[in-house]
């Protein structure tokens, strides 16, 4: 027999989900928080794949991303949040209580009076064959989106980083301390990265800059490891090869909203619409009454740890008010 509907279920264990859990639990509505195994990324969200976080308020000397997430998790648990590990495979928002199904050690089904979606975002890819998992592509064998996870495999080697934003600058700077050379490839001459991160990368003597260039193909050797990339100069169209052992993608993120398509309002880039953009007064309310969204899933603009935490807090308060009404 299916268990009774929960008051609040939170899907996602990044900054947004854990902050929502802390606030819901302290408001006397201890939630069930479902943390994925593989679906949208690691438990703990994107920050567990980061090194030093320098801009989370309260940590003047910085804090390691995994340590920050562990602290948030402990704080949410302290007030009674319950954690469940499993990948959600179906969400039914058709009527309340909402149904959440998935696969953990066993198949599971939960029902919730109010739902907080905080499934975050995943790294964007270019759509090249080389980005696919082996045997077709070289994902995880030199093609990756996480310098702190995979950088150590390329110690003393030549590597490339694609992108002109903060992620690309952080990855390039991190890799410059491990690798022989790092080539940043970016499609424009202007960089959208913040001044401080761009300046820091520019100061690294072993970072080279290829702008404006796009990556057309990831080249592999006979062992199916990366041996280079084929680049195209954006203005002239001229092609050239760059020899490297790894390509780190830093070209942004896509929201993990696949399970929600057709069930609530999304923007053209598949972020969940909330607040007035969803026709609601509460800041995190989606177009479906009782369903709230927080963090990168609903944010195409700020995408910071602290804003994700902030909207997680709002979502818990909005959900609590909805349930008490
Ligand atoms: P982003 O700011 O969206 O930058 C993505 C970069 O990739 C842009 O330079 C973009 O080029 C390029 N790009 C996108 N699609 C591409 C394609 N198909 N081919 C080639 N290049 C492509 O993403 P992000 O760097 O991951 O940053 C996301 C958010 O997180 C930002 O708000 C950022 O401030 C934040 N963040 C903050 C920190 C920090 O504060 N320490 C660290 C990491 C991220 P164009 O510029 O030409 O569009």
Write up what this structure looks like.
It is built from 6 helices and 19 strands. The chain is of the alpha/beta class. Helix 5 links the parallel strand 12 and strand 13 (207-210). The chain folds into 2 domains: 6-122 and 253-324, 3-Layer(bba) Sandwich (FAD/NAD(P)-binding domain); 125-249, FAD/NAD(P)-binding domain. Helix content is 21%, strand content 28%. The two termini are 29 Å apart. Bound molecules: NADP nicotinamide-adenine-dinucleotide phosphate. NADP nicotinamide-adenine-dinucleotide phosphate (NAP) is lined by residues 55, 124, 126, 163-168, 170, 187-188, 192, 214, 250-253, 303.
Structural descriptors:
five-stranded parallel beta sheet, binds NADP nicotinamide-adenine-dinucleotide phosphate, FAD/NAD(P)-binding domain, 325 residues, 2 domains, alpha/beta, seven-stranded mixed beta sheet
Summed up:
This protein has 325 residues and is of the alpha/beta class. It has helices spanning 15-26, 65-78, 147-150, 166-176, 195-202, 305-324, and strands at residues 6-11, 32-35, 52-53, 63-64, 82-85, 87-92, 98-103, 107-117, 121-123, 143-144, 158-162, 181-185, 207-210, 213-220, 226-233, 239-243, 246-249, 253-255, 291-293. The protein has two domains: 6-122 and 253-324, FAD/NAD(P)-binding domain (3-Layer(bba) Sandwich), CATH 3.50.50.60; 125-249, FAD/NAD(P)-binding domain (3-Layer(bba) Sandwich), CATH 3.50.50.60.
